[in-house]
Model the fold of this input.
Amino acid sequence: MNALLEVLLPGEKDWDLAQAIDPTRLPEHIAIIMDGNGRWAGRRRLPRVAGHQAGIGPVRSTVESCARLGVKVLTLYAFSVENWKRPRHEVETLWRLLRYYLKQELPNLQKNDIRLQAIGRLEALPPQVRRELEAAVDATSANRGLLVNLAINYGGRAEIVDAVNSILEMARLEGSLDSLKIDEELIATSLYTASCPDPDLLIRTSGEMRISNFLLWQIAYAELYVTETLWPDFTRTDLLQAVLAYQKRDRRYGGLSAEPVNGAAKPGAEAFGVPFVGALRPS
Done:
């Protein structure tokens, strides 16, 4: 029985979903593209920042649920390298919300033995934001439960560029540039996420069918799950449905399948969480 069932009662919402999850087949690493804050606000005729504020609750719920389920790593796409193009007041609001989240959630992270890590080009963050982020990372560094990666000022291409430049710089310092051979293993051990297993499950909210420059190297064999739910409306139910869909997948890693998992048919278009018809649309 997973620890999530300990906080649910039989007949309560999510009980059946939580009970159906096989604790021996959990995704080790779940990555989430938290999309739809602006559309959530727009549908309510609210400013975009209201959507970002509403998105804090789902972050808290998702972190808590993953910790109780026994997921080892959760990576959340919080701010991309492209997000600097947004209006200045919106970007500044995002930094204020990040600082608020760190202050409010640190006691809960400590209580639940959750370790926080930040990945991305952190040197470009506003000084106060970077200091508070580093303080929270340091404060939780001894925790041994769920690892939460906050991808901030992050881009998948930028990460690969940084990894290669790091490899070249190390070789230069060691005087081994002439004999340097770069392979997949060397790149993988030079990524921001080198200490983590690659994501097993990538969830994207808001129905958009694209990766958006997120963990491009690491998600080579991740299972994709797209839901029409906008991030501020993302609940524990949505998370559990994604995990259950993952457990029905036949993960072949380029090989051949033996038997369908648990008697389930091989996943078709419906396995992405939304019907394909009408879901693929021009960006």
The first helix runs from residue 15 to 20. The first strand starts at residue 29 and ends at 33. The CA atoms of residues 49 and 203 lie 23 Å apart.
